[in-house]
UniProtKB/TrEMBL annotation:
Species of provenance: Sphingomonas corticis
PANTHER family membership: 2-NITROPROPANE DIOXYGENASE, 2-NITROPROPANE DIOXYGENASE-LIKE PROTEIN
The protein, known as: 2-nitropropane dioxygenase
GO molecular function, a single term: dioxygenase activity
Keyword Oxidoreductase attached: yes
A Pfam family: NMO
Alphabetically ordered keywords of this record: Dioxygenase, Flavoprotein, FMN, Oxidoreductase
Amino acid sequence: MTDTTAGSARLSALMQRGNDFLGSRFAVLGGAMSWVSERHLVAAISEAGGFGVIACGAMTPELLDAEIAATKARTGTPFGVNLITMHPQLTELIAVCARHGVGHVVLAGGLPPKGSLEAIKQGGAKVICFAPTLALAKKLIRSGVDALVIEGMEAGGHIGPVSTSVLAQEMLPEIATVLPVFVAGGIGRGEAIAGYLEMGAAGVQLGTRFVCATESIAHANFKKAFIRASARDAVASVQIDPRLPVIPVRALKNSASELFAAKQREVAQSLDESRVAMTEAQLQIEHYWAGALRRAVIDGDVEHGSVMAGQSVGMVTKEEPVADILATLMDEAAAALTRRAA
Ligand SMILES: Cc1cc2nc3c(=O)[nH]c(=O)nc-3n(C[C@H](O)[C@H](O)[C@H](O)COP(=O)(O)O)c2cc1C
């Protein structure tokens, strides 16, 4: 067996900044996944040395309150909360996080609304935002964010148009010295983690790789679909008509994704024939996926629900405890750094 002591020391050194920022042993964020990232998975990730993040999604303030309390009951290690910026009760959700003394709030789903950054900071938490472009990253830095996530289109869930490798090359040299930057999207092995750390990232964020953790409450069918799938099965949803905007989501292809194209054609035809107004047509498209992730994750309907998954799904081959997933990733990263130093 190769002696990876040198690589492990280098890995610890490269992760130090991210660890100090998160208060974790490994600078690995468990990316918040609606319905999946609840008390069990979040606590397990933090307990195993990573940094778990609760996905608030569409939860009410009361539900978030209960979820944070239940997560705290399972772990004394730090974890974060992911809030979606367009949630109608964002202010109340921020207040819930403050009441619980949550140390890190991740804001997802677009630029933070006015006053939200300040409110989070006043509550004593650090703010982490997603930066889709360099210009927006600089704007967010000026507004006082504490850290950024850059996420490429290989990721599962809602995605932007640019790949992780390009975002990392474009953005890390410009911003990684200013504040901690976490790289997300398409990371399935430790070699990639080592690479992004060497490029200046403070750490990484992984979602897909944690879905099949033993501690994840995702339905057995959801996990089975992940284990069977290869990278090319995780496809981005396509917009058919320029009048009907679709925010791309990467998920495993199934009946629902095929029917979505048909639905768009049907609505577009209704528009052409003036049978529906534009706002109604756009709402019909927006509502198509409502409840679809829950249907797949919780009910196990992986044909008619949305099986959000990133391209790294091909590297998910079995159900295993979070601690084993993290140990494998860290071993691979240390081995890669050992080889590079040789
Ligand atoms: C099933 C699923 C649900 C997700 N839900 C959310 C969410 O609610 N909020 C969010 O900010 N990101 C969400 N994401 C993105 C993850 O937090 C993470 O950034 C992404 O999975 C990283 O890329 P990877 O899947 O290639 O590891 C989701 C991803 C998946 C696979």
